[in-house]
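Lecture 7 notes: from sequence to structure.
We start with the chain below.
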Amino acid sequence: MLIGQQGDKFILSSALKIPSNSHLIINGTLFLAAGANSHILGLGSSNIIIEGSGILDGNRANQSSRTWAARGGIVAGNIDYTGPGANNVLVRNITIQKTQYWHWNIISSSGVRFVRVRANNCGSSDNFAAGSNNCWAIQLRNLYLIVQVAWAWFFYGSVYHSGAIGCIVFNSAAERINVTMTLPRSWRG
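Predicted structure tokens for the same chain:
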């Protein structure tokens, strides 16, 4: 499915939920409507490609909710805290910007790859988390996180065989990748 040409703007009043076996080419801008208080794309499915030269714009200045629930760019595994994880997903060459919180929050997912994505001006770190496996950030450009406690990427809570390769982070409060885990009970002593 082709979504717009460069310069086209589509206003979303709620998240666009992407079904399995989808190939989205985003060349325009998907812009979250004022007061939508939502994420932009929800992934609770498998075999998805999202690519193009377009922009996902969270319109943070015009969102009123400070609730953490699903206020980001691309969300999987916690679509309003009820959705399943995503499997076999490729996100390539798009820009994600001005989100209320994270550019992406990928939970309980497998085989998710973000390649050459520009991530500009978000309110929190980007996450692979809680049971995710084989999830990768490759050649990303993460520019400017607005909060003082944000990391560029955050791997936490049982993330396996995942990582970041060839990525650049700058203008972040903490220009790094953070890994946090809960030790198995047998390791705690």
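Points to note: The two ends are 53 Å apart (CA to CA). The mean pLDDT is 77.
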